[in-house]
Specification:
With 171 residues, the protein is of the alpha+beta class. Helix content is 28%, strand content 26%. Strands 2-4-5-7-6 form a five-stranded mixed β-sheet, with helices on one face. The longest helix has 17 residues.
Length: 171
Amino acid sequence: SDLMTIAKAEQPDFLELGPVELESLTEEVHSKLAALERRTWSVESVGRGVLLADRQRLTQALVQLAENAVKVTRDDDEIALGTFVADGEARLWIRDSGPGIPDEEQDAIFERLERGSAARGVPFASGLGVGLSIVRAIAYAHGGRVELRSRPGAGATFTVVVPVTGPEGAR
């Protein structure tokens, strides 16, 4: 189903756009994440405002990022969710305290079937390496992007950035 999601990402009906209240989305996603695994789940920031977006797809992207964070962290490690609105963009992120991602791997991990070295010890049964491709496809469909801030030994922060006014074609 992950490969089908990527294939559908370029179709016009991939997104179901509507008003998304960022504060309630943050609360809803945090509730879902807290049920994933035993970690120290926190909310770093709660964005205020309404954006034109697909609530389900944004939730899917954040849950995917959190699932990836779970794979590279241990029980009771910290994983944080945050949202923020500024300069016409909504920023939604997952930050983990895992091993981080070497600079030379940071672009490649967004490609289909690629896994970073931190995930190489994780069995393929728990992921084929398409999760970050899905996150990127969701961001791109919204007219946005995914940003990564990481360094080895210092965890990673993946941020989905989307325009609050929706994809350009939706305006």
